[in-house]
Fold:
Amino acid sequence: MNVAGKIALGLAGSVGALAAVVAIRTATYEAPGAGVGTGAEVQLAAAPPVDLQRAASHLAEAVSFRTISHQDASENDAAEWDRFHAWLTDTYPAAHAVMSREIVAGNTLVYTWPGNDPTRNPIVLLAHHDVVPVTPGTEPDWKHPPFAGVVADDAVWGRGTVDNKGSLIGLFEAIEALAASGFEPGRTVIIVSGHDEEAGGAGAAAAAQLLKSRNVQAEFVLDEGLLVVADFPLLGRPVALIGIAEKGYGTLRITAPAKGGHSSTPPPQTGVEVLAKALLAITSNPFPMRFEGPAADMVRTLAPDAAPAVRMAVANEWLFEPLLVRQIAATPAGAASLHTTIAPTMLRGSPKENVLPQDAAGWINYRIAPGHSAEGVLQHATDATRGLGVDVEWVQPPYDPSPVSSITSDGYRVLAAAASNGGQLPVAPGLVNATTDSRYFATIADDVYRFQPLVLSLREIEMVHGTNEHLTLDNLRRMIEFYSQVIATAAR
Structure:
């Protein structure tokens, strides 16, 4: 055999060996925590019967309270929070009979339902009751007035139905039913309802500090964050995603000093031009996307139920990682889950078209992925703009990404069991790209989870903070039953 033949034979053997390795790894692949993170072994407590029409009426009433967190806090109507708190007390007498209530940071609620075994760590459940404003001028676009609290077309309509009064009402409906049925928790149940989650979460921070001062070490913390995606792209069917971490947050202000003057005699380079160069220098050097962290764990968990090509790629990450990254990054949400994002959001220049600015400034919002840090983000921007003569500084103190919570803990198993809807839905961990009040509670719990049992399509998710926000009655029922089962199971 000549040399070429030997080379060809060797290559064929190498390809064959590679194909065999890929095939074996694909055939034997198991998801991380297989048989553990599904919650299949958990025996869920039965949920009390749900009076869905009454619950819908209560949520509609809750919507009517304009607990709006404005950008400028001076625009908030403090009386609305007082009225809402009084309404909660009147509406849920059984819940308030078994729980004590404290108010911190002005309007954040902390409820405690004492367990009969003080040696067991409590569970902490979060649901904020402030809402974002309705964009002025968009009111006519709503099918029903955003604060009317209308029940129609098998849904409750209005601002806050999904984010996040629906969760709070679901919690209280569950506790009201459990208390009325005579349920007594074995471990303490703590409910925290922040009043300013949409404006930074100072109330939740104060609540977390209060619990820390009492040496509370929670079994787990649960807040909003992820949900059941009805048309999850990887599987083409509903998937329950439980957030096991969330990104950090920070906004940098990039300022280009300038002399100003009349626009008829511009200098060789205006402050606006310098600013533009600085912003492009930062955004043209993005953080690399990597198949790692919670987003990768999500794909690894679901791979056994995915198409054969996906399973093969995940089972052989060492070979197909670039392909996995490209596929996940095909959507903005997918791309965001793989790296720290850089988003210029605001610009400031001259106050008039014929005036050169005395300085020009741009704001860049960062969502910091696990494994990165605010310090690293600042260094990244500083290095990118070196030599341009701009100032780079944080607008407000940033915060780093949350720790990553366990997918094998007892708490995760309970949540997975309840989220799976009796084993009908696949469950996977995920990364929350936005921020929640839960970020403050890592000081009192090793495991902090972010999940609402809502079933929404990717398109329906867009209504959150948008027009025609509404919660279907089926989702409201799911919410109540989920919280009932979680409390009755985790705290029994």
Q: What stands out?
A: The chain has two domains: 52-247+403-490, 248-394. The first helix runs from residue 3 to 27. Residues 5-12 have pLDDT under 50 and may be disordered.
